[in-house]
Design goal:
mainly alpha; 3 helices; about 50% helix; about 0% strand; elongated
């Protein structure tokens, strides 16, 4: 008796590029979360600098805008590939 029957295996289909679960092992970046995470990290670093005595309260005038500018720059850099369109 021959037990070799034709058994086909159905592989999962991949979603189109750029959509969630695209099969590439990467997920889309949420720009808002990225920007706010960078800003929060920057503010935490400023807080640590003030608490450690490395920076003084008079330095806050130029230190506080730095995380917001850095977060904006990261957000623009992360958005730029989406603005150019999809390349194959």
């Amino acid at each position: 008796m021959d037990d070799t029957t034709d058994q086909t295996v159905s592989l999962p289909t991949t979603a189109p590029h750029g959509s969630a679960g695209g099969g590439s092992g990467r997920h889309p970046v949420n720009i808002g979360h990225l920007v706010m995470g960078i800003a929060f990290l920057g503010l935490a670093v400023i807080w640590a600098l003030i608490e450690s005595g490395t920076a003084s309260a008079t330095d806050l005038r130029w230190l506080l805008p730095v995380p917001w500018v850095a977060a904006g720059a990261v957000g623009l850099a992360a958005t730029a590939p989406r603005l150019r369109g999809h390349r194959d």
